[in-house]
């Protein structure tokens, strides 16, 4: 059950900061049995969690979890039943994730499996030029924003009715998995940043104008990796906690986090948030970064910091290859002359479950030690591996199919490079 465990970690981190629903509690209760490898009990509890969920994104995802647990217990009948429910009624469409989950291996040769896969509607194409750019959620947000300004007492209900309820499936996905499915929190944060949002408003409408740049990155990646798949790109308005994500519904980018100009009002912005605001053109490189994440379903799973750093660093490195720039130049500048020290500290923890010390640790950001240095380490490891490879296409394929992260590190020769500085 390699794949499902890391999806659960992501889900739990998304809900950790918010009051838990009955569905969330059941999901975590099932995880107790999952860790004990009691997959049948896990599946029973997660099925109840899916039934208790109050939106189709959560239902479709948790039914997938439960189906995977049943598969782990070798109950193909129950597994197929939940897969078909998640797909047919709630729109589960993450074909790459489903195919990559090794618990289903004993089911994959059957006619029933082929029927299930055939019933799914993928949110991607194998043709990079066919990807769509959708920004209707941005327009809906501003319509809601204006209504809130005129009637602040009903801000929550207005955002719900005119933004989230009218939104794309991608917006709901982002809301559930990146904003904790918490309307109160969303409204509170926006009420506290009215000056900021008013100042970036014109730029958020321009996100889709870079369509050709996004497609150029897609085309460039197709040349490097012929097996690539290309999702549609959605722009939404978030709450400054995630620049973007890749899911079965496509690439979902927060236009508000990449709309900064010299005239942007930053008076309401927290210090740690400042480092995560990008100019509009930065969306081109964030799209490229997320496109790489969309391809990473065939990589081995484990809980080590090394894996997490390589996952993120690879997206930065390959994103740079196809778009001309990576998303963490600040880290590259900081690391100059400090490579050995950073690597020594990282190496002490790289085979432990210590992601929180190196990735997504914005609260620990300091001038003398910026957050997210794990991105830089992973970027340099992948860059070293690629630079030593004679066959670049094969190198890209190998990276997207890593099964042994310790061996990959050794093959990259990165450690020797750092020690030679």
Shape: globular
Alpha plus pi helix count:
22
Whole-number mean pLDDT:
93
Task: Report the β-strand fraction as a percent range.
Answer: under 5%
Question: Can you give a write-up of this model?
Answer:
This protein has helices at residues 2-15, 22-35, 39-52, 56-72, 76-88, 95-100, 111-119, 136-150, 155-164, 169-178, 183-191, 194-204, 211-224, 271-274, 282-293, 305-323, 329-335, 339-349, 373-388, 392-399, 405-412, 414-419, and strands at residues 124-125, 133-134, 230-231, 233-236, 244-247, 250-254. The chain is mainly alpha-helical and 421 residues long. The protein folds into 3 domains: 2-122, Alpha Horseshoe (Serine Threonine Protein Phosphatase 5, Tetratricopeptide repeat); 129-293, no CATH class; 299-419, no CATH class. Strands 2-4-6-5 form a 4-stranded mixed sheet, with helices on both faces. The chain has a two-stranded antiparallel sheet with strand order 1-3. Helix 13 runs parallel beside helix 15, helix 15 (282-293) crosses helix 16 (305-323) and helix 19 runs antiparallel to helix 20. The protein starts with a helix and ends with a helix. Mean pLDDT is 93; it is low at 15-19.
